[in-house]
Design a protein that fits this description.
Elements lengths: L1 E7 L4 H13 L2 E8 L5 H9 L3 E3 L2 H6 L4 H6 L4 E4 L8 H6 L4 E5 L13 H10 L4 E8 L9 E8 L6 H27 L1
Parallel strand pairs: 1-2, 1-4, 2-3, 4-5
Antiparallel strand pairs: 5-6, 6-7
Helix pairs in contact: 1-2, 1-7, 6-7
């Protein structure tokens, strides 16, 4: 069974959706959840789900070994970024080539790059008067929001949308599609 690690920075709803999906399907196992914020609710979710978690040290992550020792010890074969806000360091990209998946809350290549996350993305989409937005699930490379797209799913941007109302529809797309796309990519790797 393939062992996954999830990196997250926030509440962890996507992390929980992934854990529950793979527990039901049995095709992979979420073996470790890593987080860069000590007060992020994803750490509580990890505890409630019975999954080991690791609080990431910023200096070690960015300029050291990127916590590769812990990932290797846990037997991690694929990394999934589920609302993780830091750029992935070169050491991790080299250790897991084509084995790091990210989800972005917009239809890349639009509204990607440094600083484009969460509320900032939805605000930019609304201000540009876009007719649709959505999610992009992609592989991670050296650039922000750049790697090969695995899938995109869209939803309309409504005339009276706020960043929060648009975010709610985007989260629905994430929870519906992210686990299935990760599973499909695991099949591609097999």
């Amino acid at each position: 069974m393939i062992k996954l690690a999830i990196f997250a920075s926030g509440s962890g709803t996507n992390a929980q959706a992934l854990v529950e999906h793979f527990r039901q399907k049995g095709s992979a196992e979420v073996s470790l959840i890593l987080c860069n914020k000590p007060d992020a609710y994803v750490l509580e979710r990890a505890k409630n789900l019975g999954i080991p978690s690791l609080l990431i040290d910023k200096e070690r992550f960015k300029n050291g070994d990127a916590h590769l020792a812990e990932l290797k010890t846990a037997g991690i074969e694929l990394i999934v970024l589920a609302g993780f806000l830091w750029k992935i360091p070169q050491a991790l990209i080299e250790a897991y080539p084509q084995r790091i998946i990210n989800i972005h809350p917009a239809l890349l290549p639009k509204y990607g790059g440094k600083g484009m996350y969460g509320h900032h993305v939805h605000q930019a989409v609304i201000e540009a008067k876009e007719q649709e937005s959505g999610i992009t699930i992609h592989l991670v490379d050296e650039e922000y929001d750049h790697g090969r797209h695995l899938a995109q799913f869209s939803c309309p941007v409504l005339p009276d949308d706020t960043p929060d109302s648009l975010a709610a529809r985007i989260h629905g797309l994430e929870h519906q599609h992210f686990p299935e796309v990760v599973e499909a990519y695991l099949q591609e790797l097999a």
